[in-house]
Amino acid sequence: MTSTLKSCTALVTAGLLAVQPAHAQMTALGAGEGQVDIVAWPGYIERGETDKAFDWVTKFEEASGCKVNVKTANTSDEMVALMNEGGFDLVTASGDASLRLVAGKRVQEINTALIPSWSTVDDRLKDAPWHTVGGKHYGVPYMWGPNVLMYNTDAFAGAAPTSWNVVFEEMNLPDGKTNKGRVQAYDGPIHIADAALYLMAHKPDLGIKSPYELNEDQYKAALDLLRVQRTLVSRYWHDAFIQIDDFKNEGMAASGSWPFQVNLLQADGVKVASTIPEEGATGWADTTMLHADAEHPNCAYMWMEHTLSSNLQSDLGVWFGANPSVPAACTDGRGMMTAETCKTNGMDDFDKIRFWQTPVSKCESQGECVPYYRWVSDYIGVIGGR
Amino acid sequence: MSWLRPASDALWRHPRLLLALLLVPPVAWLGVVYLGSLFALLAQSFFSIDEFSGLIVHEFTLKTYRELLNPANLDIILRTVTMAAVVTVAAAVIAFPIAYYAARYARGPWKAVFYLGVMLPLWSSYLVKVYSWKLILAKEGILSWLFETLHLTWLLDAYLAIPVLGGNSLSVSWTGTFLVFLYVWLPFMVLPVQASLERVPLSVIEASGDLGAAPGQTFRHVILPLALPGVIAGSIFTFSLTLGDYIIPQIIGTSRLFIGQAVYSHQGTAGNIPLAAAFAVVPIVIMGLYLWAAKRKGAFDAL
Prior knowledge:
The complex is a heterodimer.
Chain A: H1 2-19, E1 35-40, H2 58-64, E2 67-72, H3 76-85, E3 90-93, H4 95-103, H5 123-126, E4 132-133, E5 136-137, E6 140-146, E7 148-152, H6 165-168, E8 183-184, H7 191-202, H8 216-232, H9 240-249, E9 254-257, H10 259-267, E10 272-275, E11 281-290, H11 297-309, H12 312-320, E12 323-324, H13 339-345, E13 353-355, E14 362-363, E15 367-368, H14 372-383
Chain B: H1 4-13, H2 15-44, E1 48-49, E2 56-57, H3 63-68, H4 71-104, H5 109-123, H6 126-137, H7 142-149, H8 153-160, H9 174-198, H10 202-210, H11 215-244, H12 248-251, H13 259-269, H14 273-296
Antiparallel strand pairs in B: 1-2
Helix pairs in contact in B: 1-2, 2-14, 4-9, 4-11, 5-9, 9-11, 10-11, 11-14, 13-14
């Protein structure tokens, strides 16, 4: 009888341990679980299917035995929603999603000691506030880059626009035609920050310190600017591939965009180029974060190590027009990236970029700010013509 | 197999038991899987969302419904209902002559050609059709090329200059959204109208003529009333399909949201399931009213 009881207790304890989610950080790595499920931006995790030369998955799968399953998401909100739903191990979260994930307890602290290449991470990113909360690391830096201004070189007669005003104010472009109906804007509420960044440079009396921390007056000014933009924009872009199609078939002249679209369009022979105008740019700095209830934590840790140590940092940088989180990837020849491409992608422009953050009510610069949920509903209103 | 015989006897003696056994699985399917999931969604609309973390607060509140009445959200509802109504009326107007010809005049192989012509668009993927329309309607697309070849670009430009209806190009205008909706849902209108027209007895039409009615009078007083249930049945399809669609307005149009997109973006992207659920209630209510009116008109008598 006692032995039955004992084994029962053992079973219950084992059950409890198994049910207990891995909220505490892991201390040792075990064998791989055979797969890892990742939520990622489109174009972020390539296995040579779009272009044979760009593959940073196959070797990982062979070496680790972990099959990589990718679910792409087009906006940060989509990523947060997918992580809230669960069933994924990792997410490549931008700064406007990462803190929400931490606050919502959807991601867990990671143990950097289990990631041998942690020491090679860029010092500017190691303790970045979008993944470090209270001294705890909630992820491994993945990639970062600017939201560039993409423009049609014919419409601008070969000279790069120097200001974001081409997408915010009505004007004639160098080709003599108006920009009305020929510009696009991003279909995500975070675009309000681009308007705020523009106002920082052009209406200093508003006193905007950070485009993500806006009080009521500053926020209203940004929305007013976006209402002007609404009259210029014929279609907001949501899906990178629809924007690519619009630059090919709709005669688009300029839009905020990602280097990803610029590279694909240039590869197709479309006359586009990109620039970071004088106001600076918003940008993204993405972090690979581990789900609080990850089912495949060992594979997930192996993937995090792989993101830092393999050709990924280098080849993804070339593919996406982004910057590696491991500076050595620019020069050590682990992939196609060279010091030259790193410079083009803006490796030295780190300080010009305002990285995406989630706007919160209690903000650092002025105490009371307009929180994100209002950005969401108001931006829907602006697009709807309100 | 000794239990088979008593079991079979019992079923024979109690026919209701047999009926119950046969009915339980489909009713369970309808009740649990279909209605159950629907109510689970609707129940969400009485919750609200924590504004920072995006997690749902599971407490009863009507806050979410109040949010639905914001001007921006009311815009979305009105916009969608207007589009659905316009698409439905246009589909009925276009489908009626097609269905009339197919039902009354087409014979033999022509009839098959008509059926094929109406059904063919349903065989290819919905997305393929929408993307090809994007290419047709684009500024540098097939339609503008056609207008240019015919030296009619001025006509297209004049049309695009009309406020609300026009835009920078057809593919970013309300007209574009309307055309694609109309194309995609037209078969759902043609088929029920054709079925109802085929049921109008020829003798009645002849009698009307014999009694001295002009063709127009026969159409207004005999054919149309008898075919109306078919038109209403078709309109239920086109209206509800337009009301719920979220893909066409995202690819073709002005980026202003429709109800389906609002549900998608609040549920799928903003994680605001309560507001999404509240939005989902809107088409259900509208369709409920619509079906109630349609029933009174006798749209379901022939079912």
